TrEMBL record:
Keyword S-adenosyl-L-methionine: no
Annotated protein name in UniProt: Centromere protein U
UniProt keywords, alphabetically: Centromere, Chromosome, Coiled coil, Nucleus
Principal subcellular localisation of the protein: nucleus
Length: 199
């Protein structure tokens, strides 16, 4: 406990407050009072010098102990503060780790969405280029038809209209053959039934 009447002994290089008072401060203060009173009661200079030497040596020992105790106390405070800071940083690190783990699925989802977006962007760009090319081709055809209006337009076998007509004809033939095939299968079935009945 702090004692207000006791003066805190403190060297210049060491910070101390009234809360840092120890029993050694009280002992040192009382010893200096007793030594001062006793010195005044002695008339012999030799005895006074001896008392001064003893008091100085005793004070050095006490103050050395006070400094060591105060340094140890300060060190404990620093260690306690460092431990508290480490705990706070560790807690914050765990919190950040949890946030990172929680954000990982979101990151994967965002990467997937980004990749899909890039694919859509690429497809849109290709489609835009295709439509632009078709528009340019159409304009070229219109320009050509306008310049050569007297000539009859003839489509080659590799042209788009010719291919469409050809595909319609092929699809029509395919349906026709399918009908014939179904009729043949029915006729064969009827024929097999007649043969089986005869047997």
């Amino acid at each position: 406990e702090s004692v207000p009447s006791v003066q805190v002994w403190c060297p210049k290089e060491l910070k101390r407050s009234p809360r840092d008072i120890t029993e050694l401060d009280i002992v040192l203060a009382e010893f200096e009072k007793i030594a001062a009173n006793y010195r005044q009661s002695i008339e012999s200079n030799v005895c006074r010098k001896a008392i001064d030497g003893f008091c100085s040596a005793f004070k050095d020992q006490i103050t050395t102990l006070i400094v060591e105790i105060q340094e140890l106390k300060n060190m404990k405070k620093k260690n306690a503060k460092a431990i508290t800071d480490i705990k706070k940083k560790r807690q914050r690190l765990l919190q950040l780790k949890e946030e990172l783990i929680g954000a990982e699925p979101k990151l994967i989802k965002l990467k997937k969405e980004y990749a899909e977006g890039q694919e859509r962007k690429s497809a849109l760009r290709q489609a835009t280029e295709l439509f632009t090319s078709l528009r340019e081709l159409q304009q070229d055809c219109l320009d050509y038809a306008e310049k050569n209006s007297s000539q009859k337009v003839v489509y080659g076998t590799s042209s788009l209209p010719a291919l469409l007509v050809e595909s319609r004809r092929i699809l029509g033939a395919e349906r026709h053959f399918q009908n014939i095939n179904e009729k043949l299968e029915k006729a064969l079935t009827v024929q097999k039934e007649k043969i089986s009945k005869k047997r």
